[in-house]
Amino acid sequence: MDAKSIGNSIAKLRKKSGLTQSQLAQKLNISDKTVSRWENGLGYPEITQFPVLSELFGVTVDYLMTGKRKGITLAGNILADIVKNVDCYPKIGMLANIKELSRAVGGSVPNTAIDIAKIDRTIPLSAVGRIGDDEYGRYVVGQMNRYNINTEMVSVSETKPTSFSDVISQPSGERTFFHARGANAEFSPEHIDVSALNCQIFHIGYILLLDSFDKEDPEYGTVMARFLRDVQNQGIKTSVDVVSDSTADYKAKILPALKYCNYIILNEIESSMLSDLPPYDENGKLNPENIKKTMQFMASQGVKDKIIVHCKEAGFCYDVASGKFTAVPSLNIPSSEIKGSVGAGDAFCAGSLYGIYNNYDDQHILEFASSAAACNLFSDNSVDGMLNKNEIEKMAEKYGRKKL
């Protein structure tokens, strides 16, 4: 252990908590001279004192010892998915048969967190969001707890039910969502103690589906933008995801937040709504050049590190510092093996965050993310198809990749 690093961490956390050396000493039943010695790097706490300091400051023991944040916090939408596999999508007035009915976690937080946990159990993960005091809420939190995801910052509404979606999944894998906003509509920055966040990356999704965060802010444009600024001021990297909403004002809700994003991960339709550049040509063929220009536009709006866009055909990454544009085709999964695509976007996001967290190069980030997304095609719900890191890395050898 490095006494100087530990001392710096204790001093910083003490001041952040508004405590004097004497006040901290009183809480620990030690002398203020001992605290002073720690902060000057002339010694460090006994091993039994680290858990007490950790709880007092709201950080991990590892952070106290190294001064470095670890892990990923996933915030935003928490809901239950009621998945209904139908034999067709009926026209108005017609009937379709529900072939299978199941319940699964849904939303950015549980989908992405559980996917990352299944990829690699060693990464510290925390969930932040809002649920109702009901069966769906207990179910979703229970599922996250199964994977050792910290849910202490998931708050419970006294008035709103847990958000849910009826997911109508067709034989082709295409799906339609009927969504009840529920407790997610209440979720706001007031439910997050930013000073207590102890992570390397803070990811929040979905913009356009978090009513309180999407509200206008007179200074920052949106409440989300102000909130992301506050998170960055804690020395934490920020990441956002977006939901596809045909009725939303994408520019008004998303552009203000870009200035305070280190990373943004979204699909080709969502990104094109910001630049007005169509991702496909008049013949329906993917237009990578327009996608690149859209990503450059987002960089000009303030994204600091990486912009990642995904679609069925490929994934794209734009590194802001170097201006490098990377494209990787999706895996060539036979249609006969596809059971559904629920949660594939969140799985791609999980793979991207995992690659970013582990300092993969852009090519590797996209290769890993596209393989992670493909895992979800083998399941009809949002998380059951996810595999571990080693199995994901082998998928390209088995299936190969499409051609752009």
Task: Provide a concise account of the structure shown.
Helices cover 36% and strands 22% of the residues. It is an alpha/beta fold.
Biggest sheet descriptor: 9 strands, mixed
C-alpha end-to-end distance: 51 Å
Q: How would you describe the oligomerization state of the chains in this entry? A: single chain
> What strand line-up does the widest sheet have?
5-4-1-8-11-12-13-14-15
The number of helical elements comes to 14
Q: Tally of extended strands?
A: 15
Radius of gyration, in Å, reads 22 Å
Q: Outline, from the CA principal axes? A: globular
Order of helices and strands: HHHHHEEEHEHEEEEEEHEHEHHEEEHHH
Low-confidence spans: pLDDT under 50, at least 5 residues?
none
Computed structural class: alpha/beta
